[in-house]
Every structure is written in structure tokens, then in C-alpha cells.
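Exercise 7b. C-alpha cells:
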């Protein structure tokens, strides 16, 4: 199944129309922010938004989303402006998409389809490509009736379940089989990643999370001197990058950059990218990067927290980091933010402002959720040293006459495991 069945428009700019259909009562400024974000998504995918249409409704039309009068108005606009693509900010059903395409006589996609297109464009590694393909197929499955013009024909013979099966049923079985294979492939990739993680489990782990285009990759490059791709585009980072860096005390730590979140992120996309986001789940401390220059920053914060909750990433220490302070108009504005969020940090990853303070707080937050234990392992149990070094942060070691004395830092999440294995050797 080709990956670009519904993403051909990325190969050349298309003249697109952005539509947002919402129930009456939403704040006007918030509504404009949503459709502006849809325009940014479209530009990232390679489409030019020629016009934007907003319709406030008492209720969404189950057949066509928007009303009949608005459909006629849009048909005229499509003809006058030579528009070739309609993009809805809403997630639309396969039936709605089919009815709209009949009315407009051009391609109609929704927000999820647009995001998938961008994901397909930016996937680089085998893991990301596999995740994107899985999400695409799961999105495509219920939409087969509008993807294939020959579905009314009957087919039989070898390769079908019986002489009365339609082509659409055959296609569905093929796609379902492919979905299962991709899920199995991701399980194998997860196993390989677990092997790769061995040997670095004892290092403090931090993960960057945040709304897409908040500046996570720029901060990653600043802290770790990595070369993560940085673009002023949504979802420029799809593949998780993990790099080492040094905390102020000189100890090594790990920092991972993850795919950005976005409001109304489809559930199947979240599910498909669970393995990529596993770095966030495994981290000791999360750094929630927030674009302070974005007027909708509070809504973006909520979207990130909701996504973390959907991923079952709970009760994890989070440092709120407001980025791009260099884009604020004056110091008075920054002071107001500091009053509103007294426990947050305020930085500019682009200009390197306040990064040293951020590193200090990262070290403090990691230390707050860990304890130092003194243990002495007798030489008869030297096999436990491998476990100690691979699983925990060994702060110091002395080889004595009657055993090996170590000071070990243990984070709270690993405390029970540590006690089960080393309880008889703990001195304090």
C-alpha cells in the first residue's frame, strides 16, 4: 500500500482552502488561533492557503459538517480561486468526506490527514517510518470507500474469501494484515531499543516534552551540543534523539528530544507513537518547554498535559521551562509571567539565556527524588557489581580488605528494586 495515497499534494504546492466549523460560543480569538495553526500545518505540508472560512453552528451537520448555504458559497470560492484542496480543522468522518468531495469536486482532507502527511514527510528512521505507516493505514481503513473507484464491482477467485467478496473487503483484509505486521515490527524495534538502553540505565535521564515548535530541538542542541534538525515548522522532529551532557556537578546525564504535541492530536496517532514517546515515560525528570511568545500558550500547556495523561505518564517530576523570552516586547511582560509562574524557568534556547540556571535546577530536581545509600559488597558477591553499575548511579567506590564500599544514588522509582537486591549490604 503506497504511503502517499492521500498525501500527493505534498509534492507540489496546492491552492488550498482552510475551513473551521465550530459550535457557537467559542472565544473569537481562540478560534482565529486554531485556524492560523491549521494554516501553519498546511504550509509545513507544502500547501498554500488561499482563503480561510469559519462557520459557527448550533450543531455540526452529520452529513456534510457545514450547512447547505455555506457549501454553495464555498463551491463558488473554489471556482473563482482555482482551489484544488479543502482542509478541515475538524476531524471529519469518511461519510462526511465523501459527501463534501461530491459537492466540491476536489480533494477534501481533515486535520488528522494533514498531520499524517507531515509525519510521513519528516520520518527519517525505520522506527518513525513504521509508526507513520501504521498510523496511515489505521486512518485509511475506514475511508476505503472514497479511496477506490472500483469498489462496486464483484471479484472472486484465488486470494479472496469467496466468490461474493467485493474488492473493498479484500483490501480491508490486506490492510488489517499489514497493520498487524507493522505492530509486530514495532514490538521488535522496542526490544532492540531495550538492548541499546543497557549500560546507560544508571545515568540520570531527562526528556524534553512540549507543544510542537516550542523550541525543544534548539534547547537540545544548546545543552548537548548535538546537531538535531531545527526548523520553524511543525513536527520537524519525529525521531527521538538521545544525547549525553554534563550536569553542573560534572556527572553525565541523558537528554532526549521527543515529537512535539499538538491540540486535537488524534488518538490513533498517540497510540502509534508510544514507542517514540517511551523516552518521556522512562525519564526521571520531564522538561516541559513552553513557547512564551505564543498567545495561546495556556491552551498549548493543556494540550501537552492531556497528551501526557493519554500516554499514562503521570506523577512524573516536571520542570516548566518558558522558552523564547527574547521575543517578548519588554521586561515588564516577563516579570508578569514570573509572578504567574513562580516555580518555572525562563530561558532563550536560541540565545543561550539562563541555560546554566536551568542545568542547576535539573540537577536539583533529580537529586530531590533520589537517596544516597552506602553499601559494602563482599568479594564473594562480586556478580552484583554488574547490576549495581548498570542500574544505579554509583557516586564513589573504595576497594577494602573485606569488600567493596560504594555510595549509590537511587531514584525513588528504583528504590524497591534496589532494596530487594542489596538490602543485606546497606550500611546506612
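Sequence design result:
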Amino acid at each position: 500500500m503506497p504511503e502517499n495515497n492521500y498525501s500527493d499534494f505534498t509534492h507540489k504546492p496546492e491552492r488550498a482552502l482552510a475551513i473551521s466549523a465550530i459550535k457557537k460560543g467559542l472565544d473569537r480569538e481562540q478560534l482565529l488561533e486554531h485556524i492560523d495553526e491549521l494554516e501553519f500545518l498546511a504550509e509545513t505540508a507544502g500547501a498554500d492557503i488561499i482563503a480561510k472560512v469559519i462557520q459557527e453552528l448550533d450543531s455540526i451537520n452529520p452529513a456534510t459538517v457545514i450547512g447547505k448555504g455555506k457549501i454553495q458559497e464555498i463551491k463558488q470560492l473554489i471556482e473563482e480561486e482555482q482551489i484544488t484542496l479543502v482542509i478541515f480543522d475538524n476531524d471529519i468522518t469518511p461519510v462526511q468526506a465523501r459527501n463534501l468531495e461530491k459537492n466540491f469536486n476536489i480533494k477534501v482532507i481533515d486535520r488528522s490527514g494533514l498531520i499524517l502527511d507531515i509525519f510521513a514527510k519528516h520520518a527519517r528512521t525505520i522506527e518513525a517510518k513504521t509508526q507513520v505507516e501504521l498510523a496511515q493505514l489505521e486512518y485509511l481503513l475506514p475511508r476505503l470507500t472514497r479511496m477506490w473507484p472500483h469498489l462496486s464491482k464483484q471479484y472472486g477467485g484465488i486470494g479472496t474469501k469467496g466468490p461474493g467478496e467485493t474488492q473493498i473487503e479484500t483490501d480491508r483484509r490486506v490492510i488489517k494484515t499489514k497493520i498487524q505486521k507493522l505492530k509486530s515490527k514495532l514490538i521488535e524495534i522496542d526490544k532492540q531499543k531495550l538492548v541499546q538502553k543497557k549500560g546507560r540505565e544508571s545515568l540520570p535521564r531527562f526528556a524534553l516534552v512540549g507543544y510542537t515548535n516550542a523550541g525543544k530541538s534548539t534547547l537540545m542542541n544548546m545543552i548537548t551540543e548535538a546537531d538535531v534538525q531545527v526548523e520553524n515548522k511543525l513536527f520537524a522532529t519525529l525521531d527521538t534523539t538521545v544525547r549525553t551532557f554534563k550536569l553542573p556537578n560534572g556527572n553525565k546525564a541523558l537528554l532526549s528530544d521527543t515529537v512535539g504535541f499538538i491540540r486535537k492530536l488524534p488518538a490513533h496517532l498517540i497510540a502509534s507513537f508510544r514507542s517514540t514517546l517511551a523516552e518521556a515515560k522512562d525519564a526521571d525528570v520531564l522538561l516541559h518547554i513552553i513557547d512564551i511568545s505564543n498567545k495561546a500558550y495556556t491552551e498549548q500547556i493543556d494540550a501537552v498535559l492531556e497528551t501526557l495523561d493519554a500516554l499514562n505518564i503521570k506523577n512524573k517530576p516536571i520542570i516548566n521551562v518558558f522558552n523564547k523570552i527574547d521575543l517578548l516586547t519588554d521586561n515588564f511582560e516577563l516579570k508578569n509571567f514570573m509572578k504567574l509562574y513562580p516555580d518555572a524557568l525562563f530561558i532563550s534556547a536560541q540565545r543561550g539565556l539562563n541555560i546554566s540556571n536551568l542545568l542547576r535546577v535539573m540537577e536539583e530536581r533529580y537529586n530531590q527524588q533520589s537517596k544516597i545509600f552506602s553499601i559494602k559488597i563482599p568479594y564473594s558477591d562480586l556478580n552484583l557489581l554488574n547490576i549495581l553499575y548498570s542500574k544505579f548511579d554509583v557516586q564513589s567506590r573504595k576497594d577494602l580488605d573485606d569488600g567493596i564500599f560504594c555510595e549509590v544514588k537511587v531514584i525513588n522509582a528504583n528504590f524497591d528494586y534496589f532494596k530487594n537486591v542489596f538490602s543485606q549490604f546497606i550500611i546506612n
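Instructor comment: Residues 204 and 253 are 5 Å apart (CA to CA). Residues 1-10, 148-165 have pLDDT under 50 and may be disordered.
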